[in-house]
Amino acid sequence: MTSAVQAYTYTGPSVLADGRLGLSTSGGTALSGPRAHPRFFSGLLTHAAPAAAGLLAVADVALTRYHQPRPGWTRDPVVTCDGERLRFESFSACGGVYARLDVLALDGDVLDRGTTNVDVNGPLREALARVGGKDPLHVGVGADELTVTTLDGAVVEKKVPLPSRWLRGFAEVQVMAAGWDLRAELAGPQAVRFLRSLPKGARSTLWAVPAGRDLRLSSAAARGGVCLPGTGRVATLLPLLRFAKALRVYGPADGSSTASAWELELPGMRYTLAVSPQPSRGFSGEGQVLDDLATDEAGADADVVGMLLNFEPTVELGLLADRSGLPVERVRAALTQLGTSGRVGYDLHEAAHFHRELPYDKDQVAELNPRLISARKLVEAGAVRLLPDGQAEVTTGGGVRRVAVGDGTCTCPWWFDHRGSRGPCKHVLSARIAVRLAVEATP
Fold it and tell me: What is the pTM of this model?
């Protein structure tokens, strides 16, 4: 597995003292352009305890390997300020759990809009764990001038290896989530009772099945149920239950995947967890982005659509289509392309995309989808032969693979193992690329 090394440099450590939470920032993008230490927000969060607990939960996910646990590197959460909220995001070290805290109730000054990483260190984690009561909490995302001068130029540097599957996960989550629906909603007391009834640390797959105003657990798939593969992977919800106002559960209506998302409504904020189809299976290998990325126009469309993004709270497909002059389907494919470099996420509660700019090296993005790279090489090598019945033959070192271009079936071992549940194989992708090239070449 390839890894990139992400370097974080902070003017000083994030601290919590006397009711003031100062979050140090590192290398990000703002409306005013790239910044080494952008400043986004300074003001009050009236719900201090749930905010502290939620930020700690996001940081806990970044610290954890749920599959084959072992000590690893702490990955600092990403924060986006869109002028109306702060979104804190992280991915687990194993790539199978995505967490986001949306802080909606901001009472202060929005200094800029954009995305950066924030330092969450050991002492800050301990301080956040001690926050309680209903006292207001002052939050600064990015140090103000006074704080910078009192730090005497102190610098905190971190170099963290980021596996390529971790980066690809951000793109896969937003594509999968865009196809999920709200499957169940529980009021606070029912949510607390259900989540506390989950087997602790279990790695088995269970189903949450609607039962009146409640949910019941089942060991088998049932009508209307939502899959929870590995109950231990939603453990960061438990410390938040004392603040829970509601629980919403999302999943695919057609049962095409066993992945799901679990959203806790908290005072003035929401905490969302998305879990991959299996504890051993990260989001990075799902392959849901590949068909969109394989289109020849996706890269150019992404350049056009990307210029129209402005850190809006929600991205409206219809409005982007009007502004760009592109059909909605091509706008959606362009957003998928932008998602591979971390520029787009998806909010299930809003049922809409949102803009962010993850501070990753964009030169590595093209290398994050080896299946697509292999498919293009097959086409360039002339290994694809299109047949008149909507079929294709793809010649590889392992033999000739027969592909049904329309439904995406293939005779390769990879397809028989996954049967489309993890996106198209390289042979199907190469055949679809070849079909498009043939259509374009036809007068």
Answer: 0.82
Any residues with CB less than 8 A from the CB of 72 and at least 6 apart, and which? 63, 65, 93
92 in Cβ contact with 61 (< 8 Å): yes
Token pair listed for 330: 């091509």
Give the residues across from 208 on adjacent strands.
217, 226
Pair of tokens at residue 9: 């440099």
Report d(CA 242, CA 133) in Å as an integer. Answer: 12
pLDDT in tens, 126-155: 888 888 877 778 899 987 643 433 334 456
Read off the pLDDT band of 7 (50, 70, 90). confident
Residue listed under structure tokens 């949306």: 102
In sequence order, the 6+-apart residues with CB closer than 8 A to the CB of 223 are 209
Domains and CATH numbers, the chain: 3-163 (3.10.150), 171-285 (3.10.150), 369-443 (no CATH)
Over residues 27-58, the pLDDT tens digits come to: 888 988 888 889 999 998 889 999 999 999 99
Other C-beta atoms within 10 Å of 189: how many? 11
Q: Are 214 and 194 in contact (CB under 8 A)?
A: yes
Asked if residues 277 and 180 have their Cβ atoms less than 8 Å apart, the reply is no
Residues 6+ apart with CB under 8 A from 377: none
Cα separation of 440 and 437, whole Å? 5
Helix axes 317-324, 298-308, angle to 10 degrees: 100
CB-neighbour burial class of residue 205 (10 A; exposed 0-12, middle 13-18, buried 19+):
middle
End-to-end CA distance of the chain: 44
Q: In the numeric block, which tokens belong to residue 335?
A: 């957003």
